[in-house]
């Protein structure tokens, strides 16, 4: 090799590519970071270069970037001398990489150059990327690749348009060191498409993102061009929904396709690909019959292996191929219209002969035979709709001239529009169908949107026109409308099979069975080929049941899964209902702000879809307004919701109940609303709803306790936790109600005892034991009493009440009245001391129990004590429990760090003793955590614990020793010295010196 080896290559090929506008793709970055050898094989336009160039990995938090080298190969690199020159240029970006070029200057052979680069990669743990690696196909370059791959701590990435059958990779793959990525891995997912569009300043809806993904099939170059064109206003996404039927204005993308894909093809192969572009799927039999191509099988395999976007799409062993839809659209425009029509007509005949009506329909539409296309659509359209192919039917109908439309096609169009939640347009199409089809269409719109009132008249009309199987359908529809109207007995009498459904079980109060059936219906919903079921979606029904049973996490999970399914199906109805159900889940969890937000989103999405769809979010918003005390807004929202119930008795009952609960939770009982809810639930024979009403009445101080107790026993979750229709969102109020119910109806004690346990009581509490609110008592740091739902600490009636609270806090078991009096008023005259103590005790009782039963939180007999339990929480006891835990108990360190440094100041001797113990135990416990963290190899965690301990006690030698060790582990010698100096100063202030153990450790660490 001469000194002019640089003349054999170009420095441009050895530059790391500049990437603009690329979105972060964590899953690809993770694959790159995890691979010792990364092999990426995908055709042109799949973003191999972009994915690698944009995913430059860091070594870790706080560390420098990984040393990187890049080399883009071409055909000349089949010459080992040229490849060696390129590798030398790429190595110059690595630490110590100049040594590779020095070998070339000295005339070393290419193999030694590759081996020296491998040594450089090993030394700096760097990454070498070889782009266009398909050029590494010769035996001589294979030897060089084997040397490069033997790079120790270094890494190599190979990017190729075609498969790399390299023997050099075999032993590495056997060792598990090779990670492979294909075109499928590089393709954009739906969320990544959304990220890409948002990176271009666009705000696409869920359906628009789905359509962009469907059009591009995740092909990265197409996705990027489409996003750029949309951002610049050069294309509308809706224009691309039907690539077979219209012009898609993406000229730049098509120019790229022509250059990158078609350019390298042989003329015969390019011609075959162009003429076959009229068909979505290709088989050798199709091309032999229609294109009269005898070598079709071999040519298709050639195209599939050549890296041109013709992929195998059939099952294993089947010879079925397809081109990317954008490539097909471009190729089809290269055909003369008469040629394309003739090929499509011949293909349509072939498809009909072979029993493939959907392919035949598409071919007839391309050929211009609209009459035959209309006939096929009339025969098969309904079956396609049942499989969720509403877009296929709508697109096909759009391409048929209205002159060939029949009443049957108008009915089919109505069905497709109805399944897409475009109900007003569907009714317009149904109006042009036959009288029976029109009536049946209007019935199905009413059933889909749960509007019983609007469904009776078309039901009567349909029954007048129907006969045979159609008459059975009409009667089944009538039964479902009766179910929607809340007339369950009549519905089951007409169609007994309805009694086995989840909605019937829900509306009769059989919630466990309803949930079981809903979850069964939800199985297989996600991702399957089907039509949207609107309010019948199993996931969304399960979400609602979970919410009313108080299971907020599962309610949210099902709602979010249903929302994703609604986006996949392109159904605004399902998406809006899913958001409403997500609002119920948030409300059940107590997150009122999140509930209000998603209720608003559900309401916005429901506009223009169906009025009935607005009822649930309006119900939730009316509850929130009432609960916030805005009676006027709550009334307005309730009136709007009532106007949208459309004769649904069950929805009417829920609306009255939920708004009444909102008023009651704000302290304003609404007896009239509860009366209306009870009438509606009784009409529906809904036992659950009646139980909710009975409990709400009793919570407001009215109604039958026995009836409410029976309801609580049947549906214990209404009291044991917060559910959507619980009589109170507060645990303490539900506990007080439970105690009252059992006292009034003791026969339900055994049934309701598990509910008491769930509320935190060891046994069933008596009414006088439940104040109906929770109290937080604080004696650490400062003394304060906080009542549930109050934003400020409660005022003290007397200053001595504060001291009495501290005294009772430090005596967890309480103390005698005489001892408490003496501690508060030492040396006072007995009569005066008794009188003052009695006043003080009353004042403390007012602070703790005002509004609740006397004695529920403070015992006041001869023995005085705080009644600790689920209604009263004392921070000192919680702190002592944390201090008593073992070191390294999960969460203990965080709890210790949050503890106040000391007990509130007081002159009480007993309290001072407890304060001294607490002040000594807290730094000891923190030091225990520091030692445990050091043992576990967590110096940062150890430093946090030890630093806090020294803040509390600067002379705490065990804490100082742990902190010095933590700083040493983090290689911070100056910090070790500072800790030791600070400790010595603190000890000197006390007249002490460091222990020999501490001095010895310091000398060892600073040797």
Question: Would you mind describing this structure in some detail?
Answer:
With 1007 residues, the protein is mainly alpha-helical. Helix content is 60%, strand content 5%. The chain contains 51 helices and 13 strands. A five-stranded parallel β-sheet has the order 2-3-4-1-5, with helices on both faces. A three-stranded mixed β-sheet has the order 9-8-13. Strands 10-12-11 form a three-stranded antiparallel β-sheet. α33 (615-627) runs parallel beside α35 (649-665).
Category by helix and strand content: mainly alpha
Proportion of residues in extended strands: 5-15%
Instruction: Note the gap between the termini.
Output: 54 Å
Radius of gyration, whole Å = 38 Å
Strand order of the largest sheet: 2-3-4-1-5
Shape: flat
DSSP helix fraction = 55-70%
> Which consecutive residue ranges, at least 5 long each, have pLDDT under 50?
58-63
Can I get a quick summary?
This protein is mostly helical and 1007 residues long.
Break the fold down into its secondary structure elements and pairings.
Layout: H1 26-34, E1 37-41, H2 48-54, E2 68-72, H3 80-91, H4 98-105, H5 110-124, E3 127-131, H6 139-149, E4 155-160, H7 170-174, E5 178-181, H8 183-186, H9 190-199, H10 206-216, H11 220-231, H12 251-262, H13 267-275, H14 284-290, H15 296-305, E6 310-312, E7 321-323, H16 325-332, H17 337-353, H18 357-367, H19 370-386, H20 390-398, H21 407-419, H22 423-430, H23 435-448, H24 452-465, H25 469-484, H26 488-494, H27 502-507, H28 511-522, H29 538-548, H30 552-569, H31 572-589, H32 592-606, H33 615-627, H34 631-643, H35 649-665, H36 671-684, H37 687-699, H38 705-714, H39 717-720, H40 731-744, H41 749-758, E8 775-778, E9 784-787, H42 799-810, E10 815-816, H43 817-824, H44 830-849, E11 858-860, E12 863-866, E13 872-874, H45 875-883, H46 892-898, H47 909-935, H48 939-952, H49 957-969, H50 973-989, H51 996-1005
Parallel strand pairs: 1-4, 1-5, 2-3, 3-4, 8-13
Antiparallel strand pairs: 6-7, 8-9, 10-12, 11-12
Helix pairs in contact: 3-4, 3-5, 4-5, 5-6, 9-10, 17-18, 18-19, 19-20, 19-21, 20-21, 21-22, 21-23, 22-23, 23-24, 23-25, 24-25, 25-26, 28-29, 29-30, 29-31, 30-31, 31-32, 32-33, 33-34, 33-35, 34-35, 35-36, 35-37, 36-37, 37-38, 38-40, 40-41, 42-44, 46-47, 47-48, 47-49, 48-49, 49-50, 49-51
